[in-house]
Amino acid sequence: MMKSSGLLLAALLLPGIAEPQQPEAVSRTAAxxxxxxFNLDVVVTDARGMPVHGLTxxxxxxxxxxxxxxxxxxxxIRGGSLPPAGTGTxxxxxxxxxxxxxxxxxxxxxxxxxxxxxxxxxxxxxxxHQRGELFGSIRGFLEQSLEEGDEAMIVTWSRSIRTxxxxxxDPDRLEETLRSIERQSGRIATEKAELDMLRAxxxxxxxxxxxxxxxxxxxxxxxxxxxxxxMPSAELAAQQAYFEMKSKTAALKGLTAxxxxxxxxxxxxxVSHRFSRYAGLEFFLKSRSDVADLRDPRTKExxxxxxxxxxxxxxxxxxxxxxxxxxxxxxxxxxxxAETLGIAPDATSGVLGGREDLALDxxxxxxxxxxxxxxxxxxxxxxxxxxxxxxxxADLDSSYSLGYPAPAGRGRAASVSVRVRSRDxxxxxxxxxxxxxxxxxxxxxxxxxxxxxxxQARIPIRATSTAAxxxxxxxxxxxxxxxxxxxxxxxxxxxxxxxAFSVLVASVAPEGDFSEVTRRSQPFEFPGQxxxxxxxxHYTYELEIESAGPDARVxxxxxDEKGNDAGFAVVNPSGx
Length: 576
Description:
By secondary structure, the protein is α+β, with helices and mostly antiparallel strands.
């Protein structure tokens, strides 16, 4: 069963060879071998936070799992260009920042394409000024950062992911999408209603605790139970917040996996409404709480650290830098004359708004965690938007790319650290790397192909699909794939030739949720006398998929396991 869109895969390889057709590629008889490199996007700034230019490969010290490695591929991104820089001797340690006009420099040289994902949480920003600052800054960022060959995708989340605008370089389409999200975000935060309800319940139970009438056993029972409202309500609200964190982090992991199959510089800008280290912390706190209230174990019941680690591991494995911001902060409460003496301030009361301060720190911890471990930055609160967006833009325009051969340990996460020798400079880089297996790389390419065609595809497969109602209100989607045999590597055997290919399948639902990737492997062999006939035909492979509706988009990937080439096709039975 595939995740999210609930797809069930059943595959059938039709025996025999279909009628001859003219293949688009000649048959191959040798497999390819690739040398895997690790590539690091490194940002270097001085004490003022300004980008540092003009460094060479020799200025950097890279450690992989604590052991130094030699940088074999090196380049500098400067102002949108890619000036060449060799891996030779280091420059003088006191060198001035480069201008892009040094001997041998080529400021106009091409740079890697940029893939930018804007992930908007369920934004609720009623303040017109704050909302205008956020979306105005993002528009400026896209205008400055997207050049020829660059693309951006806009995604929203509201208890599930919504792909609002697939990858495009068209500024008009991006602007139209941003206007729509901006209109929808001018709302009061839903948490405010829950907090107001808890505050009212807290007031009522506190009043009972302050005035236990003689003989009132019910009132005596509530004495000492007051902690930030009626506890069952607070726990239910916090539990819901934790479920939403699980869904949100799963969406972020899925997006980073999708980016993993794409080339170029990859960043995900996460505009958050709630993204907490301890989910629902604010529901357990009073309006005048202080750090002493955090000693209650209930405030840490829904710890999300494992979820945050999963996000950073996925981002690092797929070469994605995360930038995160909570643009509006948290709304401070207003004092009320209706509060009971138990809630109203006295000489030892904390400052009104203590809950909001503690909750904001709780958000800052989670956002900083995922950003810092992937080489990005985080910001929290109103007034931080402009500087945050400028920082993201500056990182894209001023960075270094460091590459080195992948050491032994395929498929295992390894820590990585980078520093600049003999300089008091700040270096930001992702905290770990993973050398992916060929199967993992193929799965990334299938997911990526749901949103953008794979430019490296070499096998010209063809796919068609139909949908029909199935049992229990489901639909059965039948996909037929034609695979040119001449495009597959054929290795000699005692009887003739043999090979093997895998069919990988993923889907994306209309609302944007996408599935995991399912793989089926198929070996084959031909007698020598049938070789020429076989190379003129194709295999037909059938898939049957169970879906909630007929309008899921399905990506099929065919991977030649001997030659390591691949082909992809996307089908949509409904044609929508």
